[in-house]
Design brief:
By secondary structure, the protein is α/β, with parallel strands linked by helices. It contains 5 helices and 4 strands. β1, α1 and β2 form a beta-alpha-beta unit. The chain is globular and about 40 Å long. It starts with a strand and ends with a helix.
Length: about 160
């Protein structure tokens, strides 16, 4: 039993093979991170315009970015955690700009699928509580990303 991933390709640009690779990568990462079976997340692939709207609305940054994560387990102000309820763990949403992924793959000199995998794992780790607000957190998160991608077989 693995995690449940809802993929939404708003751009209709990804091939079935690319989606399957990202799905296998996230299953692999979830297993390595010991995420509970049946945990849920969504991964949405969007245009630069769409991610810019989301970035502006939720992060007050009026520019396109590569990936944005919305962790469901972070409690908002005034929210209380549900306890004693046997519901699947809902990790949250990862939103990836395909145009940014293509641009960055070119900039870094690696494949589009490697960049897409990097962004998916990056967003996924954010949902699990990893962050890069300071140098120490960044070292831990980026090292974990690289290890997962290398072990899966998506090296640079």
């Amino acid at each position: 039993m693995s995690i449940m991933i809802d993929f939404i390709d708003e751009t209709k640009e990804l091939s079935e093979q690319e989606l399957n690779t990202i799905e296998k990568l996230l299953f692999f990462a979830a297993e390595k991170e010991k995420v509970e079976a049946n945990s849920e997340l969504s991964v949405t692939f969007v245009t630069n315009d769409r991610i810019q709207e989301i970035n502006r609305e939720y992060r007050e940054k009026d520019k396109p970015t590569d990936v944005i994560s919305f962790a469901m387990e972070e409690l908002g102000e005034g929210e209380i955690p549900l306890t004693g309820v046997d519901l699947p763990r809902v990790l949250g949403d990862v939103i990836i700009s395909l145009a940014k992924a293509r641009e960055q793959a070119d900039d870094y000199g690696h494949s589009f699928i490697r960049e897409l995998g990097f962004l998916a794992v990056h967003g996924f780790l954010h949902l699990l509580g990893y962050d890069h607000e300071n140098e120490e957190e960044e070292k831990i998160m980026f090292s974990r990303q690289k290890d997962l991608l290398d072990e899966f077989g998506l090296q640079r």
